[in-house]
Amino acid sequence: MTVFAQKLKKVREESALSQKAFAEKLGIGPVSMNRLEKGNQSPDVHVLVGLRTLFGVDLNWLLNDNAAPESAIKPSIPVYDASQLNLPEDQRQRSTVLDIPAVEGDYAYRVKDEAMLPQVRQGDFVVVQQHQPVLGDLLLCLTETGLVQVRRLSRVNNQMVLAADNPIYDQIVPAENRTVLGKILRVVRTFEV
């Protein structure tokens, strides 16, 4: 059995799928899947792309004989929109995920405004974790009307407030007037090429 075959089997087992179900997801026949796992067949580009896109497999790990991470499948976190964040946590539907290596977080949110420029831009993903906020933290907040905002926890006149970094957004609100959804751990910026 080749190293690739061993790693492929590990990926399939971690995904908790039978050979047949795994093959169907990849768009190959069960015989080809069996040959791949036994090392009797080499993967084609279609299989490699499927492993990356469908299962989040790190292809460098898969094709490199020396690489051995703890898990073949990269962790992913759900991406919620404002409507999902207005629901109780146990009722949120996981429809989209964001694959970010070496990041722990409860969920991600795509920013809709430019209140936190230059650090956070419209279209950026913020990775959020439920955490007790401290002064200076970037927080994901929910307004009374259901609007989701990114704001910084600050102190003004001995009062804790949520403020925007962008001076165009001069609204400063007392922290108790917003529901804090969590602390922002990381900002992920996407670029079109």
TrEMBL record:
<dbReference type="InterPro" id="IPR039418">
    <property type="entry name" value="LexA-like"/>
</dbReference>
<dbReference type="InterPro" id="IPR015927">
    <property type="entry name" value="Peptidase_S24_S26A/B/C"/>
</dbReference>
<dbReference type="GO" id="GO:0003677">
    <property type="term" value="F:DNA binding"/>
</dbReference>
<protein>
    <submittedName>
        <fullName>SOS-response transcriptional repressor LexA (RecA-mediated autopeptidase)</fullName>
    </submittedName>
</protein>
<dbReference type="Pfam" id="PF01381">
    <property type="entry name" value="HTH_3"/>
</dbReference>
<dbReference type="InterPro" id="IPR001387">
    <property type="entry name" value="Cro/C1-type_HTH"/>
</dbReference>
<feature type="domain" description="HTH cro/C1-type">
    <location>
        <begin position="8"/>
        <end position="62"/>
    </location>
</feature>
<dbReference type="InterPro" id="IPR010982">
    <property type="entry name" value="Lambda_DNA-bd_dom_sf"/>
</dbReference>
<dbReference type="InterPro" id="IPR036286">
    <property type="entry name" value="LexA/Signal_pep-like_sf"/>
</dbReference>
<keyword id="KW-0805">Transcription regulation</keyword>
<keyword id="KW-0804">Transcription</keyword>
<dbReference type="Pfam" id="PF00717">
    <property type="entry name" value="Peptidase_S24"/>
</dbReference>
<keyword id="KW-0238">DNA-binding</keyword>
